[in-house]
Amino acid sequence: MKFCRLIGYDVRNGILRKGYFYLIVLLISGILFAGFQHKLLQGQENIPNVNGEATLMNVLFYLFAGKAPFNPEVESAFLIPVVWLVIFLYPAFITLDYPFRNLTGQGIQVMIRSGERRYWWLSKCIWTFLGTISYFFVLYLSMAFFCMVSGMEVSLSYAPDINQRLLEMQMEHLSENQVFCLVFILPVMTSLAVNFLQLCMGLFWDRMYCYLLSVIILFSSAYFLSPFAIGNFAMLKRSVFCDGAGLTVRQGIMVNTSLIVLSVILGAVRMEKFDILKKNG
């Protein structure tokens, strides 16, 4: 019962009372959707005979495309995937502050009344999970809404020609299950892995260093094609479906799940020896 109350406390104070963070997601979604519309209109003007009507999946392919692996041997500038970075840096930001502000003042009293440090830690893990899921729920729902308003089809189908010629994604034909994994499962799991690692490291480092770690992980993912740079799993252009040397859905699920579990376990061990008074000092 104490554990359930602790979760309820975190949901109320860390999500419901921070609703403005999720309103900002609506604004971000509108800007990103406008970016897709601009790219679509510009491409249709410059590239003749583009077949097919854009759908919600084409919009999500645009959001999670990332960039092709950087090849230093080719004389071209390294382009930062701004859209992709915005999508993943924002949930890391909104899950950064609350857990460790909760180690001061009233938060300490809540921990004492809960009777167990591990309850506090598990509650923050559940809060991080729910906060991340809420972010993506708002993002996907907003995109679906903008698509309906614009007359685009909302389904798992997509226009391959738009992906190939406008988004520069040479992708083999995908089944609906593969599409679902690439645009729903892997992006959410990758964001969860980054946010859980950030949460765990917050028991060792200052919050801003933890966020810097998330930034480094995501930027390095844009530069290196490697399963150790976990952001690669959330980039469609790094997928085996776009690049024969790319990463698979199974690899993404296994690596992200392992990182989440390890972060929870390491955090639980650290929390038992964590000096709250020193943290507040």
Give an overview of the whole structure.
By secondary structure, the protein is mainly alpha-helical. Helices cover 67% and strands 0% of the residues. It has 12 helices and no strands.
Defining key terms:
mainly alpha; 12 helices; 281 residues; single chain; globular; 67% helix
Q: Span between N and C termini? A: 31 Å
Number of strands: 0
| Overall pLDDT score | 88
Structural class from helices and strands?
mainly alpha
**What is the helix fraction of residues, given as a range?**
55-70%
H-E order = HHHHHHHHHHHH
Sheet having the most strands: none
**How large is the radius of gyration?**
20 Å
Portion in strands: under 5%
Number of helices: 12
- Regions with little confidence, pLDDT below 50 for 5+ residues: none
Assign an overall shape: globular
Describe how the helices and strands are arranged.
Blueprint: H1 2-14, H2 19-46, H3 56-64, H4 82-94, H5 98-101, H6 106-114, H7 117-150, H8 160-166, H9 176-201, H10 207-223, H11 249-272, H12 276-280
Helix pairs in contact: 1-7, 2-7, 4-10, 7-9, 7-11, 9-10, 9-11
Q: What's this model, at a glance?
A:
By secondary structure, the protein is an all-alpha fold. It contains 12 helices and no strands.
